[in-house]
Amino acid sequence: MTTFLGLLLAGALVAVLVVLGLGVLNMAKGGSPQRSQALMRARVGLQALALVLLLAFLFTRS
Which regions of the chain are under pLDDT 50? Predict the structure, then answer.
């Protein structure tokens, strides 16, 4: 169970980095503000998911 949660957590963290990178690229290119907002919302949601997974991982580890 801990390994599965660890893999999910790693995936969520990678997803956060990907969305963050896309947001930075969009901003650097002067892209659409609506796209920036959508990417920011996605990033915040993924960060919340990563936090929940981190807590679950820590609670099941002991």
Answer: none
